[in-house]
Design goal:
The complex is a heterodimer of chains A (about 250) and B (about 240).
Chain A (H helix, E strand, L loop, with lengths): L1 E10 L2 E11 L4 E5 L6 H9 L5 E9 L2 E2 L5 H7 L1 E4 L6 E5 H15 L7 H14 L10 E2 L5 H15 L3 E5 L7 H14 L5 E6 L3 H5 L4 E6 L2 E6 L2 H15 L1
Parallel strand pairs in A: 3-10, 3-11, 6-9, 9-10
Antiparallel strand pairs in A: 1-2, 1-4, 4-5, 7-8, 11-12
Chain B lengths: L16 H7 L5 E5 L4 E7 L7 E10 L4 E8 L4 E10 L4 E10 L4 E10 L5 E10 L4 E10 L6 E11 L5 E10 L4 E10 L3 H9 L4 H14 L8 H14 L1
Parallel strand pairs in B: 1-3, 2-4, 3-5, 4-6, 5-7, 6-8, 7-9, 8-10, 9-11, 10-12
The chains are: A alpha/beta (about 250), B alpha/beta (about 240).
Chain lengths: ~250, ~240
């Protein structure tokens, strides 16, 4: 589904990704772990196409298409979803209006019929309920006045409604208490299916107790230095990144 | 007012005087809101695109009266909305102004709000978007007389500039002769938040749709105080038509 080959990227002339290669198959959950500054967030922004992140080498192929040649909204329509570490507040735009506009923009780009008001409300209600976010909060401005945990739940509500093929979740576990972590993890697990893949980007092993990955990769200095199964996360938690990178 | 204004007149400093001459002479209007009553005035430049229009309205609010005025402008080549508002004891004045200026348009809101009695309140919220070489201007004077104790006045002006040639002018002015007053004012000029734009695009909105959504949200701040739902929706539809 996703093939990243020898990816190099920089910000303001500073190299952050330095030959990163990774292949994610349909139905798989991959965790990318690494210390601060390893390039975890940069990888997620490069996959989503954020301006300012310049790819200087390598390629990214998503479902057979050149992902790097696509604009951010085209990537979204193709099925890429980025769950942000710090979801943005948008005063004056309600969550429902934002989400419905996004869903229909994606459907239009894919040549599908737009969701009716009733169909959309059903999807949004079900997603909010599953993630324990009071439905009334979706009537408020996007993320405005939301706590850190509510913002992350809201990201998961968006993911559940948009039904992406590839979810890239950047530090979705940060800022969550134990209960919220469980709810958000269940949200991620519900999305697991044979035709969908997930890239979990995280600092800590904690999330991986709830969302058990098929593969774990260690990102240090802008490249994957070690890959393994779910047990690699436990080894990392015990021994730290330094021993792995050495 | 009979003589044409000149550039030396501070209140006309940013005006398009050639266009103003086309709208001259101006017929002043007067409104009195009786004690304890409420009135709402919706103003828009419905004139044909390219025309010039000037509204000059004096409003007197008697004790405890409430007056709300909403300006939505974006069609005329030159549009000027001048309000001279006098508030008596306990009266409230609410102004929401939306200016959408593109091309070479010059749009202005000019207010003088005089707090003549005690305990009067005023809220002015102006939101502008200017592109091309357009000019959007807000000149807002708040005057508090000796009798205007416990005045609570607020002015908020925010403008988005879409192009380098566009201009936004904001001049809040305070003249206070009472000692127990609260007069707040703020003005910002900027551009759309890039992080918010990326967020919307990453969810599937094409760039133009993302910009339109953020711009509309920014402007509708000025209409948020319209209490009646259907009136607010009508005002927002009018705004939408300008974008």
């Amino acid at each position: 589904m996703l093939i990243i080959d020898n990816l190099h990227a920089e910000i303001d002339g500073k190299t952050i990704l330095n030959g990163l290669s990774l292949t994610v198959g349909a139905g798989e959950v991959h965790a990318i772990m690494g210390p601060n500054g390893a390039g975890k967030s940069t990888l997620s922004y490069v996959l989503a196409g954020r301006a300012g992140y310049e790819v200087t080498g390598g390629s990214v192929t998503f479902l057979g298409q050149d992902l790097l040649a696509m604009a951010p909204h085209e990537r979204a329509a193709a099925g890429v979803f980025l769950g942000l570490q710090y979801p943005v507040e948008i005063p004056g735009v309600s969550n429902l209006m934002f989400l419905r506009t996004a869903l229909n923009a994606q459907r239009t780009q894919r040549g599908e019929a737009e969701a009716s008001g009733a169909e959309f409300m059903k999807l949004a209600r079900a997603a909010a309920e599953d993630l324990g976010l009071p439905f009334d909060m979706l009537k408020r401005s996007v993320n405005q006045g939301f706590s850190g945990g509510e913002k992350k739940r809201n990201e998961m509500v968006q993911m559940a409604v948009l039904q992406p093929k590839l979810a890239v979740l950047d530090e979705t576990d940060s800022g969550l208490d134990i209960d919220a972590l469980r709810v958000v993890s269940e949200g991620i697990n519900r999305m697991r299916s044979p035709d969908r893949a997930t890239l979990l980007i995280t600092h800590y092993q904690r999330l991986l107790d709830y969302v058990v990955p098929d593969h774990v990769h260690v990102l240090v200095g802008g490249r994957i230095v070690r890959s393994g199964g779910a047990d690699l996360a436990q080894i990392l938690e015990r021994d730290g990144y330094v021993s792995i990178a050495a | 007012m009979t003589a044409l204004p000149t550039r030396r007149d501070e209140a006309w400093r940013y005006a398009d005087l050639a266009a103003a001459a086309r709208a001259w002479p101006v017929t002043p209007e007067a409104i009195t809101v009786a004690a304890g009553t409420e009135q709402t005035l919706m103003l828009a430049d419905d004139a044909a695109p390219g025309s010039a229009g000037i509204r000059q309205i004096a409003v007197t609010l008697e004790a405890g009266a409430r007056f709300a005025c909403y300006v939505i402008a974006g069609r005329g080549a030159y549009g000027r909305f001048a309000l001279d508002v006098t508030l008596h004891a306990g009266a409230h004045f609410e102004l929401g102004g939306v200016l959408v200026a593109g091309g070479e348009q010059v749009l202005e809101i000019v207010t003088t709000v005089t707090h003549a009695g005690p305990g009067a309140t005023s809220r002015q919220t102006i939101r502008c978007v200017a592109g091309g070489t357009a000019t959007a201007t807000y000149l807002g004077k708040v005057a508090v007389t000796r009798d205007g104790q416990q005045t609570d006045a607020a002015q908020s002006f925010k403008a988005l500039l879409l192009d380098r040639g566009a201009t936004a002018n904001a001049k809040p002015e305070l003249e206070i002769f009472a000692d127990d007053v609260k007069c707040a004012h703020g003005a910002t000029v900027g551009e759309l938040d890039r992080t918010a734009l990326f967020y919307l695009e990453s969810r599937g909105l094409p760039p133009a749709a993302a910009r339109a959504l953020l711009t509309r949200a920014f402007l509708s701040d000025a209409l948020a105080s319209i209490a009646d739902d259907s009136a607010r929706e009508a005002a927002e539809a009018r705004l939408e038509a300008l974008l």
